[in-house]
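Issue: ligand-bound run for nicotinamide-adenine-dinucleotide - logging full I/O for the record.

Environment: standard queue, default settings, no custom constraints.

Inputs:
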Amino acid sequence: MNIAILGYGKMGKVIEEIAEERGHEIVLKVDEDIENYQLDKAEIDVAIDFSVPDAAFKNISSCFKNKIPVVCGTTGWLDKYEKAKKICEEEGTAFIYASNFSLGVNVFFELNKKLADMMKGLPEYSVEIEEIHHVQKLDAPSGTAISLAQQIIEKYPDKKGWQLDHADKDEIVIHAKRIKDVPGIHTVTYESEIDSIEIIHSAKSRKGFALGAVVAAEFLQDKKGIFTMKDVLSSLFK
Ligand SMILES: NC(=O)c1ccc[n+]([C@@H]2O[C@H](COP(=O)([O-])OP(=O)(O)OC[C@H]3O[C@@H](n4cnc5c(N)ncnc54)[C@H](O)[C@@H]3O)[C@@H](O)[C@H]2O)c1
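Outputs:
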């Protein structure tokens, strides 16, 4: 498979390493305004975008307009997600966005939904989320923490949204900490006066995200439509 890497920073470099290990070729690396590059469908099977929040939408839509499927892991641009989906559908190509591509986190997501389903009937427990990342991370809270909050909100009829640091009673609070060299730690805590229950996912390196993104790219080539990591996992476990 021929891959274009959009965003050649910390993640882009690990994606290159993993993609080459899996026998793919990197035919284009973009690390600045995409307008300076030629996007040729004949040469690129899939693009993988791990760039910056301000660039992601332009990168993704430029690929769609050239009929190139996109795997996107960039966080902090989701106000334009519906627009991106529409362009993808209009152009008849394919798209996967995930706030977190690691296999372990996607298992953690399923655990989070299951736990919220059990805890929603126990009003004595309050719920909160904490995420810790390296100090260079541009957005807060992390896309993964937002996904965790949304999964809980779907289960709790009285929760209307989430907020960073301070939340009203009908919201979930997310705490975001920035500590040198931490690839990503997410904790969901349910607390009552009697006890507390915690589930934690701790990434040891960026390799898990990169592997998930390359596996998602393998899944996406020759497909049309909008997919999620759940579709990718189902295809692996069938
Ligand atoms: N979904 C996931 O699993 C996952 C995992 C890790 C990181 N991320 C996200 O991926 C993104 C990148 O993370 P990182 O740690 O590699 O950051 P990074 O800062 O190391 O890399 C970003 C790169 O994008 C480049 N860039 C700037 N403008 C660009 C443009 N217009 N087009 C293309 N590239 C451009 C920068 O020069 C930089 O090299 C962030 O949004 C981060 O939150 C997602």
